[in-house]
Design goal:
The chain has helices spanning 5-14, 18-30, 55-74, 102-106, 126-140, 150-156, 160-168, 170-177, 183-188, 240-251, 263-276, 307-313, 316-324, 337-351, 357-362, 364-368, 382-392, 397-407, 417-434, 445-461, 467-480, 488-500, 508-515, 517-528, and strands spanning 41-47, 80-86, 146-149, 192-194, 207-211, 216-220, 226-230, 236-238, 255-256, 258-259, 285-286, 289-290, 331-332. The protein is an alpha/beta fold. Among the domains are: 5-175 and 238-286, 3-Layer(aba) Sandwich (Rossmann fold); 382-437; 445-528, Arc Repressor Mutant, subunit A. The strands form 5 sheets. It has a 4-stranded parallel sheet. Strands 5-6-7 form a 3-stranded antiparallel sheet, with no helix packed on it. Helix 17 (382-392) crosses helix 19 (417-434). The longest helix is centred in the N-terminal third of the chain and has 20 residues, at 55-74. The two termini are 46 Å apart.
Length: 536
């Protein structure tokens, strides 16, 4: 069902998909329908490179990209850019636990991240190393962005005008910040953090004098020496709320998201941005992730999933779908959500070709793939692959491909890239999560009678039986044994527990068509003979 520009434009105005809601608010409320004076609309995401990129980093970037793509459809003649900003001028406050050369790093605590040697020995600094990790991470997902370094902005003079503006409005900014601080912190707070020319550390010290005319401040260095320094040329950096506001002011940021834990920080930065003479960007506050028991995910605790965990067991598109759903609602992020999310992605992908323009823009795969999703995979779900791996005790991809190519000959390796990835993920997920929890049980006498009757039906259908025909035969057997299975659900649960060793499972007609009629008959025969199905 082809799209045309007019129908897409109309759909973009009508859809309630949240990226379009955000994009319309940006276009209509902030921009008033016209491009900014700088000539483009600027989206921004922020990253603190004291640690490696994590799942929250991915979430913020992928969601911002979704809003940007929606905006580009709404306003096709209005250029846009995305800055991935790294706050690499920040001083390192503690040594991360997962680093080599921790004693060496400890000697440089307090220095900007880009002035600390790289403990991995591969880059000019620790900050440069983590920036490279961020860029490689973003590049691996194909994001269209421009990397911007705080160190480069401060040292090159790009932030000079912003720092001078903060100096001019120093008193007004202090009036905003001081009431939010404790009594002790109020005595030392300043929006400026001088970088000591003697030790190289970022200092949190009070400012003794200010001179707007010369653009200088005076502070007491760590050795007690009163030191005058210019606020330009990277000789200082700003406290992060003031820094955030100054960045919006200098760069002209039009849109930036933030997590729920930064609501008060965003509000303070927005007030400072207005003091400097600019409007803060359009903003979406997204909820944080929870672990399996509903606790907030914390890098230091190590609870919840890492991005490496998810990408080991599922394709990146499924993670993007997880990020798409309800960004303003807290979601539990743990291993059990992975198979369900993958299958949900495949369902949306399967629906897309038959949908009209409006429904396509409501479909998450439009946002995941910027309007160009790949073709769907016919008749194969992730849960089906997991159960195939389970019943075959698959330890490598080749076992699954033997069944897949017989079931769908056109889906050979090399012909279906997404399916290839799904097969590898299914084997990994089965090996780590399914196999350790499988618990087979023998059928009762009444259950064995129903299984034997279904085996007879399956023999009569023959090896080439279609999935729906097999499913109908399953229903018929279950209904004939209503005394044993008052609800059909209990009949299918018996099949799962006896044949697959688990409490839940796939649509059995589809599974048997993929696994094979003869193979299923052999499996039933082994179960009825009392064999141990946990062994291949």
């Amino acid at each position: 069902m082809p799209d045309d520009a007019h129908s897409l434009a109309e759909a973009a105005r009508a859809t309630n998909a949240w990226p379009f809601v955000e994009a319309r608010a940006l276009l209509d409320q902030r921009l008033k329908g016209r491009a900014p004076d700088k000539g483009y609309v600027l989206f921004e995401t922020g990253y603190g490179p004291s640690g490696l990129p994590h799942i929250g980093t991915f979430g913020e970037v992928v969601r911002t990209n979704m809003v940007r793509h929606a905006f580009e459809l709404l306003a096709p003649g209005m250029p846009s850019r995305l800055f991935a900003f790294s706050d690499d001028r920040d001083g390192l406050r503690k040594v991360p636990d997962n680093l080599p050369e921790r004693e060496m790093i400890a000697r440089h605590l307090g220095k900007p991240l880009t002035d600390i040697p790289d403990p991995f020995g591969t880059h000019a600094s620790f900050g440069a190393h983590n920036n490279a990790m961020l860029r490689g991470f973003l590049d691996s997902f194909g994001f269209d962005y421009e990397f911007v370094s705080a160190t480069d902005c401060y040292k090159s003079g790009r932030f000079d005008a912003g720092c001078l503006a903060v100096l001019r409005h120093y008193d007004a900014i202090m009036e905003v910040m001081l009431p939010t601080l404790g009594e002790e912190r109020q005595q030392t707070y300043s929006p400026f953090l001088p970088i000591s020319p003697r030790t190289g550390r970022v200092l949190q010290v009070p400012i003794l004098e200010r001179d707007v005319t010369s653009g200088t401040i005076v502070y007491r260095d760590e050795d007690g020496t009163e030191t005058r320094t210019e606020v330009t040329g990277g000789r200082v950096k700003l406290q992060w709320k003031a820094d955030w506001a100054m960045r919006w002011y200098v760069l002209g940021v039009d849109y930036e998201m933030a997590g729920k834990d930064l609501i008060s920080s965003y509000e303070l930065a927005a007030r400072i941005c207005r003091i400097l003479g600019a409007e803060p960007p359009q903003n979406l506050i997204y909820e944080l992730f929870l672990d399996e028991v509903g606790q907030k995910i914390s890098k230091s605790k190590g609870n919840g999933l890492s991005i490496e965990d998810w990408l080991r067991y599922a394709p990146r598109e499924s993670l993007a779908l997880f990020m798409y759903h309800r960004p303003k609602s807290a979601k539990r992020l743990y291993f059990d959500v992975i198979p369900r999310t993958v299958d949900e992605y495949l369902i949306f992908l399967d629906k897309y070709p038959q949908e009209d323009a409006r429904r396509r823009l409501d479909n998450p795969v439009w946002h995941i793939h910027a309007g160009k999703p790949p073709p769907p995979i016919e008749g194969v779900s992730f849960s089906l692959l997991l159960n195939l791996a389970s019943v075959c005790h698959a330890e490598d991809r080749g076992v699954l491909w033997q069944f897949i190519t017989r079931y769908r000959p056109h889906l050979a390796p090399g012909q279906a890239p997404l399916l290839e990835r799904l097969v590898d993920h299914a084997v990994a997920y089965y090996r780590d999560f399914v196999r350790p929890t499988k618990r087979y049980r023998p059928p009762s006498a009444a259950e064995a009678e129903a299984l034997g009757e279904f085996a007879d039906s399956l023999r009569a259908l023959g090896a080439g039986a279609e999935a729906e025909t097999i499913q109908t035969a399953l229903y018929d057997v279950g209904k004939r044994h209503a005394a044993t299975f008052p609800e059909l659900k209990s009949w299918f649960q018996t099949l799962y527990e006896v044949l697959l060793g688990q409490e839940q499972g796939p649509r059995m007609g589809s599974f048997i068509a993929l696994y094979g009629v003869q193979e299923t008959l052999a499996l039933i025969g082994r179960a009825l003979a009392g064999e141990d199905l946990s062994k291949a």
